[in-house]
Amino acid sequence: MRFYLTTAIDYVNGRPHLGQAYEKVAADVIARYQRLCAVDTFFLMGNDEHSQNVYKKAREAGLDPLAYCDEMEQVFRDRWAELNVSYDDFIRTTQPRHRAAVQKLAQRSFDAGDIYEGTYEGWYCVSCEAFKPEKDLVDGKCPIHPTLTPEWIKETNFFFRLSKYQDRLLKHFEQHPEFLQPDVRRNEILRMIEGGLEDISMSREGQAWGIPLPFSAGNVVYVWFDALINYIAAVGYGTDDERFAQWWPANLHVIGKDITRFHTVVWPAMLWSAGIEAPRQVFGHGWINYGGQRMSKTLGTSVEPGDLVAKFGPDPARLYLTKEIAFGNDGDFTWERYEERYNADLANNLGNLVSRVTSMVQKYRGSVARPAGDGGPLAAVVAGASGRYHAAMGRFALHEGVAAAYDIITATNGFVAETAPWALAKDPSAAGRLDAVLFEAAEAVRVAATLLLPVMPASAAEILRRVGETRPVADLRLPRDGQWRTGGERHVAADPPLWPRTDSPTPGPAAVTLAGQAPSVRIEKSISKEIRVSDAPTNPPAPAPAATQAIPATAAAPAPAAVPAATPAPAPADSRIAIDDFMRVELKAALILSAEAVPKSKKLIQLSVDVGEPAPRTIVAGIAEGYQPADLVGKRIVIVANLKPAKLMGIESNGMVLAASPEGGAPILVAVDERIAPGTRVR
Ligand code: MSP
User: Fold this and answer.
1) How many CA atoms lie within 13 A of 444 on its CB side?
2) 457-466 and 352-365 helices cross at what angle (nearest 10)?
3) 678 CB neighbour count, 10 Å cutoff
4) Does ligand 1 come within 6 angstroms of the Cβ of 283?
5) How far apart are CA 74 and CA 80, in angstroms?
6) pLDDT band for position 304 (cuts 50, 70, 90)
7) On the CB side of 620, how many CA atoms lie within 13 Å of its CA?
């Protein structure tokens, strides 16, 4: 099996920004996942150099454009190396192999009668490097670059007969619904094709920077027509037919939503015109914004990916970009949120779990966890989570894949709190049970780390070392190594915390003007705030996972999402409802898969619940005064399933949990017993 994966090639008129980094990291997660599944993967990235802006930038710097691009190649490669992006090849549009491919395709298309000479007159946005129909301008400006004035150009150009491919494109979209994902982009582009396609200019006149047309040396190929060809150039089109036959068509182009039209309308038509197959799939991801604003260097809202790496290292950056943004949707980055997630997901949840499990095995079993039995409740959690993980990763729902791996981590934290190994260690008759508990926890951590390898390659490998994985990381394969193992001694290493908590002051709105600079942050090296399992036996009751304790509750919580089951005051007769009204409320049994405290809220807990639907739901519930998150995992509760989603502390809640709130007391969840499957209607 083969998988050929590409990202957009970046313009090099500026240093790499977080938006470009987001795309490269997401594609890298896909590439690493494919390799982990033993798929022969070729992952291409590169730089787009024949842009007018690049030429201008080089001239401003007093450099020859090619020398400037050489320097920028290193800048981009350094950034990607810092983020641990594992591309197999890096193409530049000034390379001879690319030029050969561009000239071959242009000639083929010309010979097929799809390229003709004409006069272009109209607006051109240099930043988009695109011709802009008058109707698309807003107050005479390009909507994407409102600070720039588009240029009016009139030149003799060559046109590509895009209009000829309208019907074939429509048919292609119809026959291959997977061709463009997610669906929202597909629908958008489909409407556009249905609305009619005009021929497009494919050359520029009188410019020196670009690839000359093979049939008219006075014109260079238009930068977009040029750039798209990189995807076939890199696998040998025009230079190595055998290699080209092996790797084309590409399995997936990962690109941003702003350039889906070029990739799913212009690009297939160009290929067809030259007698080449279209790529199999294009995924148009969303945009990452900074504090809700579009990232822009001029507005000071651009973030340097290097600053994220400098703060906590590459893996927390990769985890944030993958876990916090639903792949396909727009997402947001703020330094504040980045720290919150670091503390919650890494310092408290995963990091603390690794510390607890390894130090318990060290303390109670001389660093060796021995197999005992077939695995208790965590084996089932792992089986469910692995299934969800593969289903999600297979359709590029990267955020859901990571969430599935995190379900294992949260459940294991809950398991440790519940089984209280420090108490078992005091009871000689519980020695067998302690063995089983320690092995089970170590095994669950091993599986979670294996599933997280594509997202956090270095940290997951380090966790695997700590929990005694004996196979070399490079030899691990899914699904095999993501399954529960019942055998094999584990020699664990209890080393200092992987991710010490950070308590830097929260950056205020000033961070917007300081965009691009990481706020100066002190990373606490001390582990005193971590819950150390070795202290546990002397500090009963059993410690809850640090996630519930470590984040100070500062902000007032909004109204809790829990519904009091018992209304204290008797309802006046005229407020009684008809049975039909009641039946409109869908009450359903649900199983809590994971729970975590909502940072800065005293009342809210974020739950992931199984309601018998294909994917778990997120519900934010105001029950923190009555429960520690770890105690909630595995509880069977009742939810209102047909509520409209609501945002609580920035988290979308899809439903409400039912809880009784005794006067003056903490909320108590309405529970159902384990015979009732998640999703069962409650009336
Ligand atoms: N050179 C073209 C692509 C040619 S591909 C044959 C280009 N370059 S770019 O540098 O402007 O953008 C590179 C990629 O980064 C694009 O996929 C673009 O959508 C993506 N992003 C740029 N800003 C972004 C965000 N703020 N957020 C997420 N991705 C964004 O377009």
Assistant:
1) 34
2) 20
3) 20
4) no
5) 10
6) very high
7) 20
Q: Within the chain, what is the greatest distance between any pair of CA atoms?
A: 90
pLDDT band per the 50, 70, 90 thresholds, residue 497: very high
> Which atom, in ligand 1's list, is nearest to the CA of 289?
26
Q: Is the CB of 259 under 6 A from ligand 1?
A: yes
* pLDDT 10s digits, 527-554: 222 223 232 322 222 333 333 222 222 2
Let me know how long the chain is.
683
Among 66-75, 508-517, 661-670, which range has the highest average pLDDT?
A: 66-75
Give me the mean pLDDT over the 522-527 stretch: 26
Give the contacts of 662 (CB within 8 A, at least 6 positions apart).
668
DSSP string, 648-678: ETTEEE-SEEEEE--TTS--EE-B--TTS-T
Burial 368-403 (b: 16+ CB within 10 A, else e): ebebbeebbbbbebbebbbebbbebbebbbbbbbbb
CA 61, CA 75: separation in Å to the nearest integer? 15
Find, among 128, 123, 131, the residue nearest to 144 by Cα: 128
Nearest CA-CA partner of 603 in 670, 666, 668: 666
Helix 52-60 vs helix 65-82: crossing angle, to nearest 10: 100
3-state SS class at 398: helix
Q: Reduce the secondary structure of 104-144 to three states and give it as a string.
A: HHHHHHHHCCCEEEEEEEEEEECCCCEEECHHHCECCECCC
The Cα 604–Cα 558 span in angstroms is 8
By CB neighbour count within 10 A (0-12 exposed, 13-18 middle, 19+ buried), where does 629 fall?
buried
Exposed / middle / buried, residue 80 (Cβ in 10 Å: 0-12, 13-18, 19+): buried
CB contact set of 330 (below 8 Å; sequence gap of 6+): 286, 287, 288, 289
669 C-beta closer than 6 A to ligand 1 = no
SS3 625: coil
**Cα-to-centroid distance, 38 and ligand 1 (Å):** 29
Rg (CA), the chain: 28
Interstrand relation of 40-48 and 2-7 (parallel, antiparallel or unpaired): parallel
**Closest ligand 1 atom, residue 8 Cα:** 5
pTM of the predicted model as reported, rounded to 2 decimal places: 0.76
Report how far apart, in Å, the C-alpha atoms of 24 and of each of 247, 252, 253, 255, 401 are.
20, 13, 11, 9, 18
Tokens of 372: 């005992």
| Percent of the chain as helix, strand, coil, to the nearest 5 | 40, 20, 40
Q: Are 545 and 349 in contact (CB under 8 A)?
A: yes
CA angle 201, 203, 208 (to 5 degrees): 150
H helices of 313-468, where?
A: 314-323, 335-341, 352-365, 377-394, 398-419, 421-424, 431-451, 457-466
Can you tell me the distance from the alpha carbon of 403 to that of 667, in angstroms, rounded to the nearest whole number? 27
Substitution candidate for ligand 1 out of 23, 79, 225, 267 with most atoms within 8 A of CB? 23
